[in-house]
Amino acid sequence: MEIRKQSISILLALVLLGLPACSGNILDNPAATIVPGQPPKEPILRIESGMHTAPIMSLVVDSTNEYVVTGSIDKTIRVWRASNGQLQRTIRPPISVGREGIINSIVLSPDGRTIAASGWTCEQWDNSFCIYLFERETGRLLRRITNLPNAVFYLAYSPDGNMLVATMGEQSGIRVYRADDLSLLAEDHNYHSFSKGAAFDNKGRLATTSWDGFVRLYDPRFKLIAKVKMSEGNQPYGINFSPDGAKIAVGFEDSPKVVVLSGKNLSILYTPDTSGMTWGLRSVTWSMDGDRLYAGGTSESSREPYAKHIRRWLNGGKGSYEDSPVATDTITSIKPLLDGGVIYGAADSSIGVIDAKGSHRVLVGSLNTDYRDNWSELLLSDDASIVQFSYKPFNPTLARFTIRSRVLEHNPSPDRQLAPPLTSTSQTKVLDWENSFAPILNGHRVQLEPYEMSRSVALSPDSARVVFGTEWKVRLYDRKGQLVWNIPAPGSAWAVNIVKNNRLVVVALADGTIRWYRLRDGQELLALFPHFDKRRWVLWTSSGYFDASPGAEELLGWQRNNGSNSEADFFPVGKFRAAYYRPDVIEKILDTLDEGEAIRLANLEAGRSLPEKALEKQLPPVVSILSPASNTEVSMPEVLIRVDVRSPSGEAVTDFRALADGRPVPILGGKALESNPEHGDGGGIAREIRILIPERDVEIAIIAENRFSASAPATIRLRWQGISQKADFTIKPKLYMLAVGVSRYENKDIRLEYANKDAMDFAAAMRQQQGGLYREVHIKTLIDQGATRDEIMDGLEWIRKETTSKDVAIIYFAGHGVNDQNGTYYFLPVNADPEKLMRTGVIFFDIKNTLGYLAGKSILFIDTCHSGNIMGGGRRGIADITGLVNELTTAENGVVVFAASTGNQYSLEDQAWGNGAFTKALVEGVKGKADYLGHGKISINMLDLYISERVKELTKGRQTPTTTKPQTIPDFPIAVSQ
To answer: pTM of the entire structure?
Structure first.
């Protein structure tokens, strides 16, 4: 019953101590400065996986069932499309170290426009607590309700939207506010413990629960009607009126019971059948018609003890029931849907739906690697440069990450050099350490904080030291049980391990990260976030120097607060790539065990210096679209977009870009409007931009730039209602392709076998697409002696001039690539001189400028990995192109990139294939083998799947191709089956 224990521990941590059991993904910044009345301004590193990385504590759905909103311990609020689970917006309240910013409860105003959110909010700078009010459509922080005496655990609007109730922790009771002017209407301090639930009926009556054991009922003027002690459990939690207000359902945290009370006087009407359930059924709700009653929480069915169930009763809880196993951790919120079903949120970060017939589907699944109950799977090499782990409990999928080569392997072959954690020796005995409040070390109880649960343990090889991973901390003790150091952990420490040389401890945490700490003092050195998609990963130092797989730079970023009255900004680390993308620093961390020394050595070797400006001075602009609203119908191709633009760094905004489905569209003009000072630091300028859009449904993105980088795109969806010319839908696009392949280099030492043939074979395959997907195919092929630097530059200019917004452009490179000492990538033409790269190589800047400014869809196929001196022998040159791929696939460049391999892998070719492995799979795919569904068309995503599986098969896993596509570009066809 390990999952059950974990759920209870989270609750104890949050409620009994006011501490975050799983503090999300905030990386505490000891240097953060707290100014009274204001949150810290220093940027804070955060993980951003596209989903919550810690338990969802609250979930609501709007009255039309169009939007779902969730709030989490990870200190974010997220707005989702209810129909498909698509993330619409991430809202970031101001945060700081520790629990500040944790969201316990959210609620939508009945009109769906305003999100009220609260929890451990404003405590550090106000010395009291607050409720935030955000605009759902834009995420803008509108107002705050301040001076609350305690953390808020539940919020509820009255059905008419006129009142907002907040229930609070400890003995602070409840407060009711007028929604229009936020004035205090009523309060009741006569509570003797936490209040975790509240509900209004249609007449304005209010019912609440409290862990003092009482349920309370108030009339519309908030006079107490009834106060009844519950006998079914000591901790009444969730509460809801039936649609007609005649009944009240109550769930409990500490009991697998549900009770239905009279809506008039709280007398017990009946108790639904909860036989076979264990532990608490904390969340309760009625179906829209009141016929069905639902409940869920930490409870498990005796038939499926490792799954959390939602029970559904017929006849309002009097009838028969059905159980639906839906999540691996606590069900935190259940809300009714218009179709008679319910939607729920869970502590495993999942969101799901149970329809009126009882069928279950996951709307959004957890994207975190889950290390629970897999402490024995955390294996390490002697120097901790190789770590092996499992992606999820119970049905392990093993993975192995090598820091020095930055290679992520799946289902690797067994390696006896990798060691599991040592949990006991003849000299040192540790007992009762797993999911325990009182572990025993050599006969002595280890002193933890009250309700701090031990999750994992590891002994040093000499038995002199013991590391405990707990719910909140990583702790080092000597063998006598004396504490050496303890550090806050950004989540439960599910697994710990100590390397043989006693220099490092490695910890797998509930936020999905694996972190390397210096054993002597607990200093964090490295952190790895392996995404649950099993493809992307990001690795970084405590100062933010990072390396990332293709498409993974968006997984980590800096949150910057904009004052207490404004929402915070988030900047992915890729925005600071020029200064902080430092694989060379990463490589030296485990040798030096000191970040400063690793930076010094890496800079010395590369002839680099530290960033010229502090991170705050390099921040990109922030842009948001004020109008039109998303899903607005338009009938003319010229559209006026009104945006708000801020510059947190103070740098001037130098340019704007407009994209339609990820590709550039013309900006016809624009002008600055009024200043908007409400957005905190950096001010704000409203601006009008006139753009020309295609005559179809389209996603529009606006990007602002300064001299350092580009903003994240602000996006809206526009629906075309005009009369389109028939030709726009019947005329096929043209394909323009530049294929470059170099095998017969003038430097005989670096010649290859199949790069030239690869280019010719791919060009031939795409030429056969004329008359199929494309009305015309124009290909310029540059092979060997024809692939000089001048010819390649002319080819890039040709494809840029010829490609229109209705066309598709493909650039293909096969040959050698080289990174210079600063990491800049060059493709080597046939006459290249590696000693004179700037004059004889094709620099990445020229490739990027061509692809980024192509009017049509642009795709790069690149088979040049790696750089260096190891060339020939059936291997392409060795060039780390990961940074190139990530830069090209940012929204402002908008390029789809297929890379033969990345990182430090070789790109392989073999006589048996007659090609390089990548191009062998590529040609097979576009000729029809990637058409898995048999629909006749092959899309980018389908080709990606085929190439990845086929190359793995050909090379026996030695080469891993990657495909990266900007989020602003939808999947589209590239070929038809031949």
So the answer is: 0.88
Residue 229: burial class (beta carbons within 10 Å; 0-12, 13-18, 19+):
exposed
- Each residue of 97-125: pLDDT tens digit? 888 999 999 999 999 999 999 999 999 99
C-alpha 456/C-alpha 645 separation (Å) is: 48
Each residue of 95-117: b (16+ CB within 10 Å) or e? bbbbbbbbbbbbbbbbebebbbb
DSSP label of 908: B
Residue 342, domain member (yes or no): yes
How confident is the model at residue 419, as a pLDDT? 94
Tokens of 587: 């490589």
On whether residue 767 sits in a domain, the answer given is yes
Contact 774, 762 (CB under 8 A): no
Domain boundary among 366, 389, 409: 366
| Domain match, 684 and 789 both | no
The domain boundary, picked from 725, 748, 763, lies at 725
Span 549-565, mean pLDDT?
94
Strand partners, 214: 229
Residue with tokens 């006129």, as numbered in its chain: 162
Q: What string of DSSP letters covers 909-952?
A: EETTTTEEHHHHHHHHIIIIIT-TT-SSEEEHHHHHHHHHHHHH
**What's the token pair of residue 168?**
């609070």
**Is residue 117 within 8 Å of residue 134, measured between CB atoms?**
yes
Torsion of CA 211, 212, 215, 218, to 10 degrees: -110
For 650-701, what is each residue's pLDDT tens digit? 889 999 999 999 888 999 987 776 655 444 444 578 889 999 999 989 999 9
Give residue 209's identity as a one-letter amino acid code. T
- 597-648 pLDDT, tens digit per residue, is 999 999 998 887 776 667 888 899 999 999 998 889 999 999 999 999 999 9
Residue 5: φ, ψ to 5° = -60, -35
Mean pLDDT score of the chain: 89
Q: In terms of residue numbers, what domain contains 299?
A: 272-366
CB-CB contact of 625 with 585 (8 Å): no
Cβ atoms of residues 810 and 846 within 8 Å: no
Q: 516 and 397 in one domain?
A: yes
